Every structure is written in C-alpha cells, then in structure tokens.
Amino acid sequence: MAVTELPVKIAGDLTRESRAPRGETVFDVEGVGVSYDGNLAVRDVTLPIYAKQVTAIIGPSGCGKSTFIRVFNRMNDLIPGAQVHGRVLYRGEDLYGKAVDPVEVRKQVGMVFQKPNPFPKSIYDNVAFGPRVLGWSKGLDDRVEEALRRAALWDEVKDRLRKNALGLSGGQQQRLCIARALATEPDVILMDEPASALDPIATTRIEDLMHELKRDYTILIVTHNMQQAARVADMTAFFSVDVAPEGDRTGILVEYDETSKIFTQPSDRRTEDYVTGRFG
Q1: Is the pLDDT of residue 60 over 50?
Q2: What is the 3-class SS of 92-151, one letter each residue?
Q3: What is the distance in angstroms between the CA of the first residue and the CA of the last residue of the chain?
Q4: CB 3.0 to 4.6 Å from 172: which of 127, 168, 229, 250, for a disulfide?
Q5: The CATH number of the domain where 35 resides is what?
Q6: What is residue 197's predicted lDDT score, i.e. its pLDDT?
Q7: Residue 16 lies in a domain
Q8: Where are the alpha helices (DSSP H) in 19-98?
Q9: Taking the complete model, does pTM exceed 0.85, yes or no?
C-alpha cells in the first residue's frame, strides 16, 4: 500500500539508496513484554536497535511506549509489581542476567525525561552529580565543560555555572538534563517525550542536538509528535493497542522499519491509518 497524502514532511530524497544503513546492533529485543501485577502492558516485542542512529517509538496514548523504553535501562525494576518477560541483549550480553548490575546499566544507558528535572543545585553540580556518585573526581571541571558543550549549552551558561539550575529556561533545563546524562559517558541515550513541554524554538534546539549526538551515541526517543519522528529518526517503531474482549489493553509492536518507509510506504494498514491521521 502507499500513502499519498501525509501530515508530515521528511527532508531529503526518499529512495531506498538514501535511507540510513543498518549497521551494528546495540540491542536485540526478543519477545519482550512488561507486566504490572500480572497484567500485560506490552507484549511480544522483537526488534533490533542500531548503533549511532535515532530510533523513534510512536503510537497512540496507552500503547506502552514509555513502559517499553524503560526496559533498556531497567527502570521498570524500580516499579513494584513490574516484571519484564523475554530477553534483551545489550551488545550480546543479557541485560537482565543475574550477574548484571542495574546501576551499571543506567550508567551505560542514560535517560532524559519528558519534563526537565534539574536538581535544585547549581548548573555545575547538576552535571557533576553522576561523575561524583561514580567516584570520578579527577578532571571534573573538564568533564562538566565537555558535557555542556555536547549538549549545546556551554556558551549560554559558562559564566554562571554556580547559579541555580532552576533559573534556566525550560529548553535550557532540558539541555542541562541531557548534559547531566552525557557526563557519565553513556553508550545509549533514552529520551521520553523530551520536547513535549517545550516551545517550538526550544524543540528545534533539542532536535538539532539529537542530530549532533547520534554521531557518538545511540538514541531512542518516545514521541507523540509524528513530525518530530519524521525529522529526527532513522528507524521508527509503531506501537498500537490490542483490546481484549474483557477490556484489557496491551501494547503491541505493529511495524518497525526505516522512518522513510513507515511514513510513505507502511506495510500495515494500522500504521497507514495512524500516520495519515485516520486513527489515534
């Protein structure tokens, strides 16, 4: 099937040759589900996540996008009654193996949340927090500066590093949270609706930053904004909701492919209905 009219625009040539190459696999997700107190929130997800690409997770509210992204840094471990099923391999190692330290996982897989959440500390102390927890005291000033530079914030805050971070604008606070995640030298960055609370200008800054960061990091982003997914993502996973006769709702993966294909030639009618605005 082909989509003839889209509410989104993808920049550049959409020929198969121009699409992002699928390279090294960082995560292999095999039959993964998440349940809360025995009730499945997401079920049977299988897909690879590729290195140094932006992967977007889209879908209607309640389809388990945020639940799914928390699988990658074991944040669901912190929720009473939550259980992860299936297998997640991180560079070939079982992320949920008995010998795996969840704290080490969260060092390798940083996370940026929907609402900017800087600590009520100085800008410097926000970025230095993670390295200090890890005992990385040597070269801390350089580490803080590098993280702020990578988050495209250094020039705006270099003269007020000792000022309270809560005095920054919303967009600056979100970039500070990205700098805080980068300071622990992660391999992967998870972003759960990172621009939903920001104005269009700040949103553009965050999207530009994602393009820069994917040179060195693997990025997974949850977004309700299909235009954003089309602008920033190399790969896109479309999730939907399966409603059982008794009314139970479970998130399911409908389709996963290159972003250009998801938005122009989806393989599943449910995907086409969603990206053209006929559903969700």
Answers
A1: yes
A2: CEECCCCCCCHHHHHHHEEEECCCCCCCCCEHHHHHHHHHHHCCCCCCHHHHHHHHHHHC
A3: 19
A4: 168
A5: 3.40.50.300
A6: 82
A7: no
A8: 65-69
A9: yes
